[in-house]
């Protein structure tokens, strides 16, 4: 599919395609043409031109999401292109904007917004080298430190020290870039580029370091907080966090696995859970909550009922919910607002079929994403599932891998899915009849890939044919055996792997020591 370009955009492409000429001629370009030239340069990956455009940016703001998004001149949205050449040129151009010796009175830039950049799995840039969220965090922090050194050493005009630019960014911090980011945040007052953290993600970080850096980010500005892999944040730590730091603008919260475990609860723990729920209600504006892989049996109401804003996204996958939890969700004020819901890891047909369908009917008018992985949905449940999904006319994404469905049942389900007008993405399971007879569900990791691959390919072709015959080429159907794409995990998987090996080694050493003591 080709996107139409205006004559203005075609002219801009022609202008920036000759980098040497474009860079020499920038001084004669009208200020209101800079955004047009920037998008054209980004599309053609003209790094040097991008650098010079940013270094001489004549406007008050520089918003990546708006600059790369759909415009009248060129409808295609380029904000999902995290091209390394383009982004590095952008950020170094920003540093050089500050150092550029032109009159400070010419410098109008006050806000740079990098939060509109979207990290996706498939990249269309020619260089094929991406700069993810972690690398953007790393580079911006490094440039802020370099800038301070340059300002101390160079003979800058007095006006340079008066430049103050707020740089809005989604920070991603791990053990590997922690020190660099901390230094940049500590020196924020002295640096012309002020890092303003709008969203914060932390993986592979000691708890003490997490508490320290989260205070440095200015939590009063934070809208999204993700504490995901290998940050050992348990319920008592969460209570301390919420008691000591306020997050008045926080709308989205993701907590690591096993933050809550009601199987170990004492009376003190029950009170602690109530306190956490009350704090989330009092000092946040939560609309998105992810507490996957915690054990919350019978406690969902305690956690969610104090919230004053209705949730639009809820991930309670693998949380061992019981009938009371599902009944609360179905009847709560959140139900009518849920746009994204993940109930994976619960035996829905066995435990609470009617309550689940009640919840589904309440959120059907707004639901965009539904995830029901490893929910024991079998062939006999497909007709009921179709009945429940029929009102969900805004559904864009349906993920149901790990369910014991036959290829025949999948064909029946796909025929129905073609009727959902907004549907764009389907993640379906390997059909049960592709696995050896006697396979048990959920399928363990060792058996996950032991299926008839040729038969699976034939079934996948038939399912895609159903979509094609219904003129639904816009629907992407796939079977990601090891889970959906996670840009953050993909970018830091080496560090994550090393951390897991280290943790395993330490556990093994402790076990060996204990065993030797016993002998």
Number of helices: 20
State the secondary-structure class: alpha/beta
> How many strands, which pairing sense, and closed or not: the largest β-sheet?
13 strands, parallel
Q: Give the distance, in angstroms, between the N- and C-terminal Cα atoms.
A: 71 Å
Tell me the β content: 5-15%
User: Residue-averaged pLDDT, rounded?
Assistant: 92
| Apparent shape | globular
- The whole-angstrom Rg is 26 Å
Strand order within the widest beta sheet: 1-2-3-4-5-6-7-8-9-10-11-12-13
Q: Low-confidence spans: pLDDT under 50, at least 5 residues?
A: none
Helix content: 40-55%
The count of β-strands is 13
GO cellular component, one term: cytoplasm
Family: Belongs to the PRAME family. LRRC14 subfamily.
Protein name: Leucine-rich repeat-containing protein 14B
Keywords: Leucine-rich repeat, Repeat
Structure write-up:
The chain is α/β, with parallel strands linked by helices and 519 residues long. It has a domain of 125 residues. 43% of the residues lie in helices and 10% in strands. Helix 6 runs parallel beside helix 7 and helix 17 packs parallel to helix 18. The longest helix is centred in the last third of the chain and has 26 residues. The radius of gyration is 26 Å and the shape is globular. The mean pLDDT is 92.
């Amino acid at each position: 599919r080709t996107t139409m370009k205006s004559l203005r955009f075609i002219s801009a492409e022609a202008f920036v395609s000759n980098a040497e000429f474009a860079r020499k001629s920038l001084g004669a370009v009208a200020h209101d043409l800079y955004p047009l030239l920037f998008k054209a340069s980004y599309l053609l990956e003209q790094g040097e031109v991008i650098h010079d455009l940013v270094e001489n940016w004549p406007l008050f703001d520089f918003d990546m999401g708006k600059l790369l998004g759909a415009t009248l001149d060129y409808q295609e949205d380029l904000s999902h292109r995290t091209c390394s050449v383009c982004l590095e040129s952008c950020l170094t151009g920003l540093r050089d904007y500050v150092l550029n010796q032109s009159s400070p009175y010419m410098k109008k830039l006050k806000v740079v917004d990098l939060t509109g950049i979207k990290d996706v799995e498939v990249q269309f840039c020619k260089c094929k080298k991406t700069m993810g969220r972690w690398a953007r965090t790393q580079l911006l922090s490094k440039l802020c430190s370099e800038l301070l050194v340059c300002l101390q050493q160079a003979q800058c005009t007095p006006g340079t020290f008066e430049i103050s630019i707020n740089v809005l960014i989604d920070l991603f911090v791990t053990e590997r870039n922690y020190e660099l980011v901390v230094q940049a945040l500590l020196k924020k007052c002295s640096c012309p580029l002020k890092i303003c953290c709008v969203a914060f993600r932390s993986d592979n970080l000691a708890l003490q370091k997490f508490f320290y850096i989260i205070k440095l980010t200015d939590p009063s500005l934070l809208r999204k907080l993700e504490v995901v892999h290998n940050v050992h944040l348990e319920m008592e730590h969460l209570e301390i966090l919420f008691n000591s730091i306020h997050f008045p603008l926080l709308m989205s919260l993701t907590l690591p696995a096993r933050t809550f475990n009601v199987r170990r609860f004492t009376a003190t723990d029950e009170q602690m859970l109530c306190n956490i729920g009350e704090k989330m209600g009092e000092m946040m504006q939560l609309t998105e909550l992810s507490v996957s892989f915690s054990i919350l049996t019978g406690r969902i109401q305690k956690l969610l009922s104090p919230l004053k804003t209705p949730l639009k996204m809820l991930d309670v996958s693998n949380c061992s919910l019981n009938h009371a939890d599902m009944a609360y969700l179905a009847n709560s004020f959140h139900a009518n607002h849920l746009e994204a819901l993940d109930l994976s890891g619960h035996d829905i047909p066995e435990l609470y079929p009617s309550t689940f369908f009640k919840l589904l009917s309440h959120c059907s008018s707004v639901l965009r994403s539904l995830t029901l992985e490893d929910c024991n949905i079998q062939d006999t449940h497909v007709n009921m599932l179709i009945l429940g999904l029929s009102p969900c006319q805004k559904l864009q994404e349906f993920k149901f891998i790990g369910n014991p469905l036959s290829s025949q049942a999948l064909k029946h389900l796909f025929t129905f899915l073609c009727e959902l007008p907004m549907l764009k993405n389907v993640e379906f399971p390997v059909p049960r009849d592709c696995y050896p007879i006697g396979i048990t569900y959920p399928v363990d990791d060792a058996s996950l890939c032991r299926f008839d691959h040729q038969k699976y390919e034939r079934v996948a072709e038939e399912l895609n044919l159903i979509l094609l015959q219904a003129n639904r080429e816009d629907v992407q159907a796939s079977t990601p055996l090891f889970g959906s794409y996670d840009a953050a995990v993909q970018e830091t998987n080496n560090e994550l792997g090393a951390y897991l090996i280290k943790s395993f080694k330490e556990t093994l050493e402790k076990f060996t020591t204990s065993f030797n003591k016993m002998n």
